[in-house]
Design goal:
By secondary structure, the chain is mainly beta. The protein folds into three domains: 61 residues, Roll (SH3 type barrels), CATH 2.30.30.30; 61 residues, Nucleic acid-binding proteins (OB fold (Dihydrolipoamide Acetyltransferase, E2P)); 58 residues, OB fold (Dihydrolipoamide Acetyltransferase, E2P), CATH 2.40.50.140. Helix content is 0%, strand content 55%. It is built from no helices and 16 strands. The strands form three sheets. Strands 1-6-2-3-4-5 form a six-stranded antiparallel sheet, with no helix packed on it. Strand 13 and strand 14 form a beta hairpin. It is flat.
Length: 188
């Protein structure tokens, strides 16, 4: 049994019959009383983010998770079919399990967090960045590199991203999957 002293970012715990992942935490002491641990938790089943405060020394139930590599194969309705990189087993996960799935293209490798005892997938994590080709954007004007103005561009997965004016159709760009923002152009 773990206590609040063991709380760290990325830790999965059981709370209210749900498995929650610690996104952020902060410890603080209030006067003469016992300390508290404020946490921001994300449900691995619903994706909902909540805040919860624990008393210092409170027992928590830690859930052992394993990170496994899966390759995205194809969409199936509102779900995605993934294949284990080692065993070639295929699983189908609902779209809600993947944050920013709009940047996922066939062949991409993702991390699937598995509940170690129950062998069920908890969540799917995209890579930090992806490289995608721009399929459509308005033409740029020569000399528009000095301004910080952005224009909409559609990438090969169908997602829309704001890019600088100098980006053209057919170019490859690197995108941050957590924020959905343009990072840089990439030569292929």
């Amino acid at each position: 049994m773990a206590t609040t002293a063991d709380i760290r970012n990325g830790l999965c715990i059981e709370l209210n019959n749900d498995i929650m992942k610690v996104i952020d935490f902060q410890r603080f002491q209030v006067g003469r009383g016992s300390g508290k641990v404020w946490t921001k938790l994300k449900s691995t089943t619903t994706g909902k983010i909540i805040e919860h405060t624990f008393q210092s020394g409170h027992n928590i139930t830690e859930v052992r998770v394993e990170r496994r590599k899966f390759q995205y194969l194809y969409p199936e309705g509102d779900s995605f079919v993934l294949m284990n990189q080692e065993t070639y087993d295929q699983i189908t996960v609902p779209a809600e399990m993947i944050e920013n799935a709009r940047f996922l293209k066939e062949g991409d490798v993702v991390d699937v967090l598995y509940h170690a005892q129950k062998e069920i997938p908890l969540s799917v994590e995209m890579p930090q960045t992806v490289v995608l080709q721009i399929t459509y954007t308005e033409p740029g004007v020569r000399g528009d590199t000095a301004t910080n103005t952005l224009k909409p561009a559609t990438v090969e997965t169908g997602a829309e991203v704001r890019v600088p004016l100098f980006c053209e159709t057919g170019e490859y760009i690197k995108i941050d999957t957590t924020t959905g923002e343009y990072i840089e152009r990439v030569k292929k």
